[in-house]
């Protein structure tokens, strides 16, 4: 054994690696080709490469001997890397001397060379294991010191906030460190490669609060921009489907797929706004932006569990090798976009999911518990509803029903929170005062199961807690069809002109009472009109208004304000004809598409003033209310665009099954046509919300002034 050789190699791992690269990298692509008569690498070339590392030749002459067979004699599956691994460079076991490499076999464990030799073999194994990347199965771990393995626990594409800019990263969580990488741009035909941006040993990782760091404000993307991206995605999908029915060939489809990929990548980059902050031992912080509290809790749980048992050691060379190995270790290979899905993969559910959260069991102590529901949409998760807080109970029994809109959704997530009324007990993570997550779970939305119109019972088990649910799905075509009420004495499903004439009012009583109650105590409610109210409460209010119950005002005061907002939305949604009327709807959709601002204003105002008087007065009354709601946007998070997104389809969607604005000669899917039509409806309402005032002719001014004061 020549100690000077080992010491020389190990004293400079970088030099050692460069020698190995000089020897191995030129050989990496080599593979025996049964159909090739000429060898891809001559023996002379192999000899030249080999003798670049005389120290290795001295250590083990078998290296040279093993490479002497002519390349054309190799088997079809044989690679150069196989020869090196066959030569016992791979550490198999330190328990059985017969299975150890020759160098270790002849070195006593007490000899000072032994640990040096172990390190040399470990470095060699990690480097050489990537030689036959094309035929080696996906690796599960990297060898580290002491013979342990560095296991990959999870990896995800995430958005990092860097100096106020959003950057797409691929984040790898190992058993002893968190590694943040960036995917390199590669020329066509070349494999993936990663750059290491930063890493934190788990033993040094902390979750930052806003007090711990100089928090950078999260640059919020306007809702209009997000919706514009969604509509652009729907338009491109529509074009792809049309191209598939033509004979223009794959090139046109490939161009559209590229555009789709760009738009979906941009949407996933811009949509998350929930901070997830981590820091190293020196207090240097890094901020990720995610869209789901569920996902944020998952990362924290895995890291905290692993911190109890992790040990860390990493050289700069090992960091480079670890980063290079991520290509083989990764479990998430593509950004979660529809363009990456196969044609036969499910595109998810589009429509409305009714969910009843029944009860929870398995709690070990009495808690103030509530549940939150999230669904995925366009590749990321969005919070859709939450139950009321059930106080001081080990068996909360909510029995609350919610209607959740699905946009290509495949998964329903449920989170159980303990309501922390005492500020001293509240968690303060990522700059937000948060209630404690007690349990979380999810359930796949199976289209085959949910197509059945009956209620489907489910149980989500999580951390010993069981939550019982019932679900029922309705497609958009079925659930959004306007159905006139058979009972004309009520208000729901009855023409607005009939209701106002019966009540001798300009604005229906239900609209005025709901607006008054929301303005009394709901103007600062986060997500007012967006967050679903309890369906049973909404149905109770609907029945009370339909039966002209004089105690309806008392009922409203005792109900959650989201149920009041839900009742108002339901009233407009169930009108047999939209507030903007079936006849004028195509004209509104055409007017909003005009590019000339002067012509657009003239067209839109003339159309608005052409509405029947009950429709016009009711709309202006509602419009003023929505503007007042948006004035509290900093608190309730409801911008004019958010409100237009909620109310646009409700006020404009025509009663006909098929839209009058669809002029395409080619049939398009329900999902694509829906998205394009919704965008027009949202834009119409947003246009009027953004107008400072709506001028009206003198003949109508007195009537309107009187009506809005009612």
Concise structural overview:
By secondary structure, the protein is of the alpha+beta class.
Mean pLDDT: 77
- Poorly predicted runs of 5 or more residues: 1-43, 49-64, 66-72, 87-100, 130-137, 657-670, 705-710
Radius of gyration: 33 Å
Biggest sheet, open or closed, and with what strands and sense?
8 strands, antiparallel
- Number of helices, counting only DSSP H or I runs of 4 residues or more: 26
What is the total tally of β strands?
Answer: 19
Category from helices, strands and their pairing: alpha+beta
Helix content: 40-55%
Strand percentage lies at 15-25%
Instruction: Tell me, briefly, the overall form.
Output: globular
- N- to C-terminal separation? 100 Å
Please provide a written account of the structure.
- The protein is an alpha+beta fold.
- The protein contains 26 helices and 19 strands.
- The termini are far apart.
- Mean pLDDT is 77; it is low at 1-43, 49-64, 66-72, 87-100, 130-137, 657-670 and 705-710.
- It is found in: Cell projection, Axon; Cell projection, Dendritic spine.
- GO terms for molecular function: GTPase activator activity; guanyl-nucleotide exchange factor activity.
- One of its GO terms (biological process) is signal transduction.
């Amino acid at each position: 054994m020549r100690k000077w050789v080992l010491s020389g190699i190990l004293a400079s791992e970088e030099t050692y690696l460069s020698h190995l690269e000089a020897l191995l990298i030129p050989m990496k692509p080599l593979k025996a080709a049964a159909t090739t008569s000429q060898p891809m690498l001559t023996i002379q070339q192999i000899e030249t490469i080999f003798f670049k590392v005389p120290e290795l030749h001295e250590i083990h002459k078998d290296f040279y001997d093993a490479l002497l067979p002519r390349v054309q004699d190799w088997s079809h599956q044989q690679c150069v890397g196989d020869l090196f691994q066959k030569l016992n460079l791979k550490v198999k076991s330190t328990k059985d001397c017969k299975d150890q490499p020759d160098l270790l076999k002849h070195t006593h464990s007490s000899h000072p060379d032994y640990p040096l030799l172990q390190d040399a073999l470990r470095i060699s194994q990690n480097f050489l294991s990537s030689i036959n990347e094309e035929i080696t199965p996906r690796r599960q771990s990297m060898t580290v010191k002491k013979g342990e393995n560095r296991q990959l626990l999870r990896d995800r594409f995430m958005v990092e906030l860097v100096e106020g800019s959003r950057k797409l990263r691929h984040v790898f969580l190992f058993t002893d460190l968190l590694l943040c990488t960036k995917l390199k741009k590669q020329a066509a035909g070349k494999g993936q490669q990663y750059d290491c941006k930063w890493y934190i040993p788990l033993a040094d990782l902390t979750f930052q609060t806003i007090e711990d760091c100089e928090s950078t404000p999260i640059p919020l993307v306007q809702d209009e921009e997000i919706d514009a991206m969604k509509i652009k995605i729907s338009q491109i999908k529509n074009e792809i489907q049309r191209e598939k029915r033509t004979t223009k060939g794959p090139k046109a489809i490939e161009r559209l797929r590229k555009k789709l990929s760009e738009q979906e990548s941009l949407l996933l980059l811009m949509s998350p706004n929930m901070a997830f902050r981590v820091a190293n031992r020196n207090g240097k912080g890094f901020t990720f932006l995610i869209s789901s509290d569920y996902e944020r809790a998952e990362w924290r749980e895995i890291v905290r569990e692993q911190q109890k048992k992790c040990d860390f050691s990493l050289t700069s060379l090992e960091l480079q090798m670890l980063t290079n190995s991520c290509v083989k270790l990764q479990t998430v290979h593509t950004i979660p976009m529809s363009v990456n899905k196969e044609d036969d993969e499910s595109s998810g559910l589009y429509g409305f999911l009714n969910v009843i959260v029944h009860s929870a069991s398995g709690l070990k102590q009495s808690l103030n518990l509530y549940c939150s529901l999230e669904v995925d949409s366009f590749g990321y998760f969005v919070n859709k509803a939450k139950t009321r807080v059930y106080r001081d109970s080990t068996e909360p029994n909510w029995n609350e029903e919610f209607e959740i809109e699905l946009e290509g959704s495949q998964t329903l997530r449920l989170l159980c929170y303990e309501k922390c009324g005492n500020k001293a007990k509240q968690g303060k993570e990522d700059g937000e005062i948060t209630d404690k997550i007690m349990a979380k779970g999810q359930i796949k939305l199976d289209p085959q199961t949910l197509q059945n119109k009956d209620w489907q019972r489910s149980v989500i088990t999580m951390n010993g807690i069981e939550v019982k649910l019932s679900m029922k799905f309705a497609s958009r075509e079925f659930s959004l069809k306007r159905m006139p009420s058979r009972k004309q004495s009520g208000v729901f499903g009855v023409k607005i002109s009939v209701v106002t004439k019966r009540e001798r009012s300009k604005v229906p009583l239900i609209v005025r009472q709901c607006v008054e109650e929301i303005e009394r105590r709901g103007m600062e409610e986060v997500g007012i009109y967006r967050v679903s109210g309890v369906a049973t409460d909404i149905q109770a209010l609907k029945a009370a208004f339909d039966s002209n119950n004089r105690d309806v005002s008392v009922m409203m005061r005792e109900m959650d304000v989201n149920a009041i907002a839900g009742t108002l939305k339901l009233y407009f949604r169930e009108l047999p004809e939209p507030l903007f009327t079936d006849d004028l709807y195509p004209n509104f959709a055409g007017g909003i598409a005009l590019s000339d601002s002067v012509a657009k204003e003239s067209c839109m105002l003339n159309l608005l003033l052409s509405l029947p008087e009950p429709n016009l007065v009711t709309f202006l009354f509602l419009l003023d209310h929505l503007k007042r709601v948006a004035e509290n946007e900093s608190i309730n998070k409801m911008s004019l665009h958010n409100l237009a997104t909620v109310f646009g389809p409700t006020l404009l969607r025509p009663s006909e099954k098929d839209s009058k604005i669809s002029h395409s000669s080619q049939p398009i899917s329900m999902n694509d046509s829906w998205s394009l039509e919704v965008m027009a409806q949202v834009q119409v309402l947003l246009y009027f919300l953004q107008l400072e005032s709506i001028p009206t002719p003198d003949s109508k001014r007195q009537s309107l002034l009187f009506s809005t004061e009612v």
